[in-house]
Design a protein that fits this description.
This protein is of the alpha/beta class and 214 residues long. It contains seven helices and nine strands; from the N terminus they run βαβααβββββαβααβα. The chain has helices at 14-24, 47-50, 63-74, 115-120, 131-145, 150-169, 187-204; strands at 2-8, 30-34, 79-81, 84-85, 90-91, 96-98, 103-107, 123-128, 178-181.
Amino acid sequence: MLIIGIAGGSGSGKTTVVNKIIKSLPENSVALLPQDAYYYDNGHLSPEEKLKINFDHPNSIEFDLLVDNITLLKSGSSIEQPIYSYVTCARLGETVTIEPKRVVIVEGILILTNKKLRDLMDIKLFVDTDSDDRLMRIIRRDVQERGRNYNDALKHYEKYVKPMHQQFIEPTKLFADVIIPQGGNNKVAIDMVASRIKLNLDDSQVPVVRPTKS
């Protein structure tokens, strides 16, 4: 089993990179674990308190559960992945059953901030995109998917996203094996990464011939 971590700033194009890598690999060979599924359940907070949640700080993620889930997959066991709603800031009652696959991709802005999680990864990628491009994508996403208006999305970026990116996310480039500039538009880099993953999968299937005792 290959564990691949794909990090990068919010709005950097990680999802596009993930989808293109998955598409290039054998069908039904990949399990995807999005970091966003592992946000702590904050459904008990008031609407005012929910607006103050810092989703871009490492403390917002239940890393111990994510690490445990990956460890279970590596051991050959299935897991029940949480489902998180940004609208209610809570985990839903149901879960998603994830079966072990030859490749497990862990994707999220903060996944390289946690050493235990990094140590489980065989390949670490960082998707790097211009900050102006990320800002436009973040505002569009927050308005369309997370129930914020334009002004709230911009305030959230200024108060949380930008400073947290500079403090926690940008420095994790140092842990990456490969940095992919221009996000999902970098076809050459994505093809190279996908080829390397396929090569590793092919190597893992080569039978080990052990010498016989004379």
